Amino acid sequence: MYMDLDVLVDLDTGSSDLYLYNYVDGLLDSARTYPTLNPSNLTINYGIGSVTGNVSLVDMTFAGFSVTNQSFLHVTQSDQTAIIDGKLAAGLLGLGFDTISNIHDLVQSKFPGTTEGRTLLSNIFSSNPPTSRHIAFRLDRLYDNNDTDTGSFDIGTFETGFEAVKNTPEIPIYSVLPGYKIYWSVLVDGISINGKNQTLKSAITNGNIPPDGKLAASLDTGYSYPQVTREIAAAIYEPMDGVFDDAIGYYLVPCKAQTNLTFYIGGHTIPIHPLDLSSVGVASLDGQNVTVCRGYFQPISGKPAGGLVDIILGDAFLRNTYTVYNFGNLTDGTSGLSSQNPYIKLLPLTDPNAASAEFQAARKTQLATLPPEVGDDSPDSRSALSNKSERTAKEVTRIGSMSLAVSILCGITSFIF
């Protein structure tokens, strides 16, 4: 018999699998192997890194809901996984549909039609059904001079004070086609920067190709840094005197620079807080510590979600909305079927006029405790830092990612084993 343990897990709406590792001694001592699944080994690939292990079973409680015999990946090996390498959390919980679950696919391939291998949310919705089959996020923001705001995560309910989201329009999941994997994706109707509407052109060639002038976007809590088209990233940061680092793939920008970035989705106007346009870090230049700022919105590479979306709107976008992910009605105890009409609801949170003043005050406070900003805040000085070494650029990346990961992990919830 084992004592219950409370541990933190990262929450990811862009995937559906649960993986855990021996974050603390004894954490997985009560885990059980699948008696009839042979072999049970599995590798799961993510946008960055991968995990390998055995599909196992464990009893757990999550957000007040108890589940017995929950399938998960007991990790024995990982590659470039910040959560494990930095011991930031005990693992990762995917909050997507069963249709993109590697564990579900493996179990179904061995035992077609079984409900074994379902995601944690599917098990919660099937055996402990809340009033509404949805999850809701409000993400915290670091360095905003508000130390009491910690964000929220709810299953089947809404955070007090944000119930108005119930009256907002349902935004249907866009990339939903028979035979296709399903992601939490929506249509972006427009993007404006400093009042100028940007030209949007989808690169999707299969599945649901967006109408002219629109993009398909995944609302993904697993990405700290939103991934947008190279043209959009340039339009955001180059007017701010940003310098793009080709080797690493992001912009260095003046720490006090801001711009007006607005997304138009599902009838909503969603301004982005200036604090969500850049992150502050410290790097070494010629033996001296300097402060540098990195653009949050990065040019995308590859084909995300198997080529079914154009861009990924991660945490720096999602901090500006109260976001509800509704799975719709479930059929035969499974989630993610296209006939079930899943949808998203958004409640914009950012007042652009107030946000500008908040940015100036918060950034001034933060910079006051750090080394001088690199050079004279000119593009040439930022290019010097960018070209100094790949190691320095990676260090800036690490600093920014760590801050976001801690904010998300500390601000949401935990498992109880």
TrEMBL record:
PROSITE patterns found in the cross-reference section: PEPTIDASE_A1
PANTHER family cross-referenced by the UniProt entry: BETA-SITE APP-CLEAVING ENZYME, ISOFORM A-RELATED, PEPTIDASE A1 DOMAIN-CONTAINING PROTEIN
Protein name: Eukaryotic aspartyl protease
Record keywords, A-Z: Hydrolase, Protease
Record region (Disordered): 370-390
Gene Ontology annotations of biological process type: proteolysis
GO molecular function annotation: aspartic-type endopeptidase activity
All residue ranges annotated as the Peptidase A1 domain in the record: 1-335
Keyword Protease: yes
Similarity remark: Belongs to the peptidase A1 family.
Organism name: Ceratobasidium theobromae
InterPro entries in alphabetical order: Aspartic_peptidase_A1, Pepsin-like_dom, PEPTIDASE_A1, Peptidase_aspartic_dom_sf
